[in-house]
């Protein structure tokens, strides 16, 4: 027993310099330690800190009593809206009214009572030329901007961001291969969890697709089960999601905001409950959001990963030695009085 006590004491004395040294080393640890909480705090803050925007009342969503197209925020959308509002609608309206007037005029003017002896005319060269040429000219007037718009839609500019959109019964998943390949699963937000800033009923989702403003976003659209369709009216974007097939479309939103869409291909029982919410933000906000999802911006990939890893290692090393130093120092410190 005595020898054991002596051994302990000897050990304590032998360790004392080590303990002292450990305590000497310890002050370095607290100095390094604050770095750890700061870095940790940043990481901790970055994740929940991303502030999603609230929807704008008349933008990117249907409005009560609305019957026109949603305000467009892409060049394709502007062209298509012009085509619809300024070209097709006037032509359709004029043509429908013209044909209706002709019918009314014929029905009244040439009714049996007013016109007892019907004309036996069967040919009129002028009128035959007119009713052949006029529709051809009208179709040409429509065809030129129509084909130009179609070509523009398929001529995809170089993509700044690529998103793989996958339809599922009955939700969407989004993958960001350029940003570390993270994946989002986006579901309808249930009514009991929905707040006004999330968006309208049946359109609000739990995970929004976030994209940068004024950047070409390329969508690779596919499906895991049946045919769905990814549609966002304010971008004039609609693309079928077909299992086993990669469809491609794109958009370049020119205005920050929150834009809603829906699955637009009848895909089963909950087809009406798989909305789409696209949040268009500044480049800086986009980078912030990507990091909050654990992704990284292209280019900064290796460059940022290395410095990020280095401080992490530097922080980790003192953090590991500090508790070790404490562990060594404390038993020695307590064992000494205990032995005395
Ligand atoms: Cu669907």
Question: Can you walk through the features of this model?
Answer:
With 340 residues, the chain is an alpha+beta fold. Among the domains are: 75-110 and 125-154; 161-292, Immunoglobulin-like, CATH 2.60.40.420. The chain has 6 helices and 10 strands. The strands form 2 sheets. A 5-stranded mixed sheet has the order 3-2-1-5-8, with no helix packed on it. It has a 5-stranded mixed sheet with strand order 4-10-9-6-7. Strand 6 (228-232) and strand 7 (237-241) form a beta hairpin. Helix 2 (35-49) crosses helix 5 (283-292). The longest helix has 40 residues, at 300-339. Residues 6-46 and 303-340 have low confidence and may be disordered. Bound molecules: copper (II) ion (CU). The site of copper (II) ion has 7 residues, from loops. Copper (II) ion binds next to loops. One of its GO terms (cellular component) is plasma membrane. Its main location: membrane. It catalyses: 4 Fe(II)-[cytochrome c] + O2 + 8 H(+)(in) = 4 Fe(III)-[cytochrome c] + 2 H2O + 4 H(+)(out). This is Cytochrome c oxidase subunit 2.
CATH architecture heading of the domain at 161-292: Sandwich
Structural class: alpha+beta
- CATH overall fold name of the domain at 161-292: Immunoglobulin-like
Averaging pLDDT over every residue, what do you get?
80
Radius of gyration: 35 Å
As residue ranges, the low-confidence spans are 6-46, 303-340
| Individual helix count | 6
CATH C-level class of the domain at 161-292: Mainly Beta
Signal peptide: 1-22
Subcellular location: Cell membrane; Membrane
Main location: membrane
Cofactor: heme; Cu cation
């Amino acid at each position: 027993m005595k020898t054991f006590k002596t051994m302990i004491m000897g050990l304590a004395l032998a360790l004392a310099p080590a303990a002292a040294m450990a305590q000497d080393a310890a002050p370095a640890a607290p100095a390094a330690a604050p770095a750890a909480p700061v870095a940790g705090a940043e990481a901790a803050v970055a994740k929940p800190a991303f502030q999603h925007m609230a929807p704008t009342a008349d933008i990117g969503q249907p409005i009560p009593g609305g019957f026109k197209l949603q305000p467009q925020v892409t060049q394709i959308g502007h062209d298509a809206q012009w085509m619809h509002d300024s070209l097709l609608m006037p032509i359709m309206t004029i043509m429908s009214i013209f044909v209706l007037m002709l019918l009314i005029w014929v029905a009244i003017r040439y009714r049996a009572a007013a016109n007892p002896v019907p004309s036996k005319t069967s040919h009129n060269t002028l009128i035959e030329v007119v009713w052949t040429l006029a529709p051809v000219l009208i179709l040409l007037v429509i065809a030129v901007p129509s084909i130009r718009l179609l070509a523009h839609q398929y001529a995809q500019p170089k993509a700044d961001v690529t998103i793989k959109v996958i339809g599922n019964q009955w939700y969407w998943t989004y993958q960001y291969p350029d940003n570390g390949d993270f994946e989002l699963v986006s579901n309808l937000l249930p009514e009991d969890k929905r707040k006004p800033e999330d968006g309208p009923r049946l359109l609000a989702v739990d995970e929004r697709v976030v994209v940068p403003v004024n950047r070409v976003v390329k969508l690779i659209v596919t499906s895991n089960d049946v045919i769905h369709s990814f549609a966002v009216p304010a971008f004039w974007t609609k693309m079928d999601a077909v299992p086993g097939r990669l469809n491609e479309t794109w958009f370049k939103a020119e205005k920050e905001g929150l834009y809603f869409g829906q699955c637009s291909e009848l895909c089963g029982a909950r087809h009406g409950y798989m909305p789409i919410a696209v949040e268009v933000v500044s480049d800086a906000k986009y980078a912030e959001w990507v990091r909050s999802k654990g992704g990284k911006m292209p280019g900064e990939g290796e460059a940022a990963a290395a410095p990020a890893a280095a401080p992490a290692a530097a922080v980790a090393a003192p953090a590991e030695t500090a508790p070790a130093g404490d562990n060594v120092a404390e038993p020695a410190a307590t064992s000494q009085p205990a032995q005395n």
